[in-house]
Amino acid sequence: MKEFRNLVSSEDFSCEELLELMELGAEIYSNPEKFSEKCRGKILASLFFEPSTRTRLSFEAAMLRLGGSCITVPDPKVSSATKGESLQDTIRTVGCYSDIIAMRHPHEGSAELAKEVTLVPFINAGDGGHQHPTQTLTDLLTISQYKKSLENMTIGLCGDLKFGRTVHSLVKTLSKFKGNKFIFISPVELVIPEYIKMYLNDRNVEFIEVRTIEEVMDKLDILYMTRVQRERFFNEADYVRLKDTYILDNKKMKTAKDDMIILHPLPRVNEIATEVDSDHRAKYFNQVKFGMIIRMALILKLLEVK
Ligand code: NCD
Description:
306 residues; alpha/beta; Rossmann fold; five-stranded parallel β-sheet; four-stranded parallel β-sheet; 9 strands; 36% helix
């Protein structure tokens, strides 16, 4: 059987491969027409068992902009999963119809299970509170475009660091690049998981944990804001108590470096005041565009299109 690559975890690609992907992303960004027929005749299947706007549409738009086509299950409530079909059987089935699969699922580890049985390249588009490697590729392309490097940066990550899967994937990946330091800004209830801290300690990567943005703002090269992940809370009262802990506004931005960039995987709830959108450092809507571009690059890589 033909061997192929999947993307399940942000550790699946080496730094060299990530840099190659960033280069391809930059090329697609500056010359999209060159790639518009590269996947003619190929089909992407998107399987989203959790809500999504950006990730799903950016995968589908990426495949369409490469000249390929997409199939999807419009509402997981009408899929055979509700008849009791196992995830493995669904993945095997979908692989008979498509050339590549992107799946989002509410359970941590579901992507690992899917990878074991898939017949075609498989992409994890978010598995519960665990990982979201294609958001990390999006973040890396945005950072490399605005900061011209993925090294020697102080990165502040703010908000729900416990359940925020984009944070988990991004920290693990950026820690592989030289000289990056992390500042984790969260309420005590939503601190970064112990396993991430162990991962950083094992690799001698510097990090600190703080409770306010103000005390570290002037040190940051990147501020990565996140929403509190309501759907992963066990009770609504805790969510309500914590949801507005951090609201980034123009006043807090006053002490930030002039070339700091603000990123957010989106959706935003309340954590960035809309007045910040017009600040030249706000890059979260540019990030959305880079998300589609880097998924084009990823599809080309996994389908081994030259
Ligand atoms: C993120 C996700 O789904 O984890 N969104 C996204 O894919 N852009 C972040 C979030 O939902 O808060």
